Amino acid sequence: MNSPYAKVIVNPVAGGGATRRRWPHIGRMLREDGLEFDYQFTEGVGHGIEIAREAAQDGYELLVAVGGDGTANEVANGLVDSVCPARLGVISTGAGSDFARSLGIPRDYGQACSILSGGRVALIDVGVMEYGDNQRRLFVSHAAVGFVATVVEATGKRSKALGGTIPYVLALLTTILTYHNKDITLTLDGHSEGIRVSLAAFSNGAYFGGGMKVAPDAELGDGLLDVVVVGDVGRLEFLHTFPRVYNGTHLTHPKISLKRAYCARLESTERVLIEADGELIGEAPVSFSVLPGALSVVI
Q1: Quick check: helix, strand or coil at residue 112?
Q2: Which residues constitute the domain of residue 39?
């Protein structure tokens, strides 16, 4: 079978700008693997959505996101919103790479490139987030509110130009010192509860935050969101528990819960930020749901 003609969407600032330097090598590897493609650099936030939507409408069979989780998120948003079918490919060059990790796609560029010309296709779910004035955003890996979103906001203020995980770690430390837990009303499949939380994560995949196994048993194709709620934990308690998130054992903590739901809504009288796939999106109130099997991904 001939390889599909592809549109490669490259985020040059992903990975602290390393993607721009690595792209010539990645492009050569794609051609050596027999992939025929055009490519285009994104020029700012949201541009990947526009490129992906236009590429799908132009008849490209495969759209390849080269960048971090935010790049994959934008390409997926453009793909799913298009009426023209196309598949998503992922070459992860960002700091987090959580979507690729959940899919089992290697970080090694050579292996990831080989997958695109000979890999199998999986149908995965896509999360839907509705917020603000009738605004809608899809997510492929996770969405989160509270502490995590505040860290993302602080990371952006420090600029990803520092590269790697340095801005995220600095933002994490600052947020731990300044963040205050939030009173929210959380509704899961019609059942509401008023609780005080540090954060709530709505996970499609198992990972976020650069390898944190927040929802260790989450499946990308089960039609459900894994909702992980970290309750009213203090700073010292949070710091003590935090390392356990990397192996998924944090769920045994008495103030951390996991539930699965088809849909969810979060409301608060306080300012509660929301993020999706590592990008700051807006503020609560926000509703979450799932589009089962809405995205074809080459794995």
Answers
A1: helix
A2: 5-119
Compute the chain's Rg from CA coordinates. 19
3-class secondary structure, 283: strand
The pTM of this model reads 0.91
Nearest of 207, 218, 209 to residue 258 by alpha carbon: 218
Inside any domain, residue 160 = yes
> Do 141 and 273 belong to one domain?
yes
User: How many other CB atoms are there within 10 angstroms of residue 46's CB atom?
Assistant: 12
In a domain, 75, yes or no: yes
Residues 221 and 259 in one domain: yes
Instruction: Return the amino acid letter for 61.
Output: E
pLDDT for 161? 46
The pair of structure tokens assigned to 168 is 């995220």
pLDDT (tens digit, 9 = 90+) per residue, 27-86? 999 999 999 999 999 999 999 999 999 999 999 999 999 999 999 999 999 999 787 789
Look up residue 98 and give its two tokens. 């959580």
Q: Determine the pLDDT at residue 1.
A: 35
Distance in angstroms (rounded) separating the CA atoms of residues 146 and 84: 36
Query: Tell me, what's the pLDDT at 159?
Result: 53
The answer to whether 206 and 258 are in contact (CB under 8 A) is: no
The angle at the Cα of 248, spanning 247 to 251, to the nearest 5 degrees, equals: 145
Task: Give pLDDT < 70 ranges for the chain.
Answer: 1-4, 157-166
